[in-house]
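Tokens in:
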């Protein structure tokens, strides 16, 4: 019978990615961990710490939960993607409308901490609750005749 070749050990880079993403998601959510789905080496599932570690498919995530996982993945990957070089900017496009007030507060706090650590964070959103949280804004104003103009508000 044919023997399957041994699986290569998990590389340091892959472990590092997993830990960065896991740590970011736990800090953002306070309850979720991203796990590999054992039956599918590339599949992912969510472990819910507040529900005795119950695991479920990422396909069952709500809009707000999906946003948190996506943001955690983006932040975790940006932490290591520079391969020793600092990545100084990050843009987040939408998803804020799916968040409840508590989760929105955690996300905004995380983004503010990134700014304190030297990252420029751009947020693209129509959510009014964010307006007070962002000190410098670029608004797109539609003028008559279909022309738009940019306005910087500090």
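Residues out:
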């Amino acid at each position: 019978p044919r023997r399957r070749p041994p699986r290569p050990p998990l590389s340091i880079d892959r472990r590092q990615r997993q830990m960065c993403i896991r740590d970011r998601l736990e800090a953002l959510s306070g309850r979720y961990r991203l796990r590999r789905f054992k039956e599918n080496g590339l599949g992912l599932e969510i472990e819910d710490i507040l529900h005795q570690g119950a695991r479920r498919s990422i396909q069952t995530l709500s809009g707000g939960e999906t946003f948190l996982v996506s943001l955690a993945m983006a932040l975790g990957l940006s932490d290591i993607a520079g391969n020793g070089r600092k990545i100084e900017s990050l843009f987040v496009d939408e998803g804020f409308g799916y968040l409840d007030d508590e989760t929105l507060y955690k996300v905004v706090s995380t983004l503010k901490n990134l700014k304190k650590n030297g990252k420029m964070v751009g947020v693209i959103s129509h959510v009014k609750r964010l307006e007070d949280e962002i000190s410098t804004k670029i608004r797109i104003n539609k003028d008559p005749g279909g022309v738009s103009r940019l306005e910087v508000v500090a």
